[in-house]
Amino acid sequence: MSCPRGFALIAVLWTVTALAGIVGLAVGAARLGQQTSLNRLALTRGRWAAEACLAIAQARWVQHRLADTATEDLGRGTRCTWELTDPTARLNVNTADAIELTALLCGSRAAGCPGDSIVARRRAQPFADLEEVAGVPGVDTTALASLTVDGPGSVNANAAAPAVLLALPGLTPEAIGRLAESHAVGRPIASLDALVTAVSSAASAPLLAHYADLSRELTFAAPVYLLTARGWVEGIGARDRLAAVTELMIVPLPDRLAIVRRRLA
Fold first, then answer.
1. Which of 96, 152, 207, 261 is the Cys-Cys partner for 100 at CB 3.0 to 4.6 Å?
2. What does the buried/exposed string (b/e) look like for 131-142 if buried means 16 or more CB atoms within 10 Å of the residue's CB?
3. How far apart are CA 156 and CA 92, in angstroms?
4. What is the dihedral sign for C-alpha 97, 98, 101, 102?
């Protein structure tokens, strides 16, 4: 008679163990569901906060205070900030020719340079982001800071780094130095013709030789900006900075920022 009782006891223990496991799984699922709900709530509030920062940025543009990007406290732990960047301060990999890409990425070394590979890849489909560019064999990831996939393809002569400007035809170190000097004293050069007259004859000759190309590629003020807003809620979820990001491409007008493209991240 002891054997049936022993089997019964074992069956009861197994049942209790199984029930405990089921309860544990249920509790774990409930906690996971609760965490997921909290994260969704944080992202929703973060998205609202990002949109609020974009509205604040629009107002500050009119007040000439758009560079004031300090974090905004919107109440109840909800915060946002924004960043303004000029995509034309970089070389656009979707529009630059192979010679310019080679000059920027490899200097005088053309053999093995990924410039031609980048041009070949974008013929099938333009690059959507710099991560795709980094995947091209031979691309030095440190050069990505000088590249962009955004903007109209022009280069802002008053904002681009010397390495970017040197990649363009006709721009000599003297011309680039004059651009930097004028910008530093608050009187940036406003046109290609003004640059030609501001440099020596030795530096103006290549500018005139490539005048048509530079007229198409150079700009002397930002035609567009990227306005990126981030919103988050402090202290919700496993990550205290679960942020929602909204990016606008905007055209700066005197009385407003005209939105060309909106992208969520």
1. 96
2. ebbeebeebeee
3. 12
4. negative
pLDDT tens per residue across span 205-228: 999 999 999 999 999 999 999 999
**81 phi and psi, to 5 degrees?**
-150, 170
Start-end of H helices in 63-161: 98-106, 115-124, 130-134
Q: Are 242 and 230 in contact (CB under 8 A)?
A: no
In this structure, how many other beta carbons lie within 10 angstroms of the beta carbon of residue 47?
Answer: 18
Question: Nearest to residue 231, comparing CAs of 246, 220, 219?
Answer: 246
Task: Give yes or no for a contact between 230 and 245, defined as CB atoms under 8 angstroms apart.
Answer: yes
CB 46 within 8 Å of CB 233: yes
Burial of 102 (0-12, 13-18, 19+ CB in 10 A): buried
Helices (H), 140-186: 162-166, 173-184
Segment 40-75, tens digit of pLDDT:
877 888 899 999 999 998 888 888 877 777 788 888
Hey, where are the domains in the chain?
A: 1-31, 42-86+224-265, 92-150, 158-219
Q: What is the pTM of this model?
A: 0.78
Nearest to 150 by CA among 88, 231, 107, 70: 88
Strand, coil or helix: what is 56? helix
Please report the beta strands in 47-183, taking only residues with DSSP state E, as ranges in sequence order: 72-73, 78-85, 91-92, 147-148, 155-156
Q: How far apart are CA 63 and CA 43, in angstroms?
A: 30
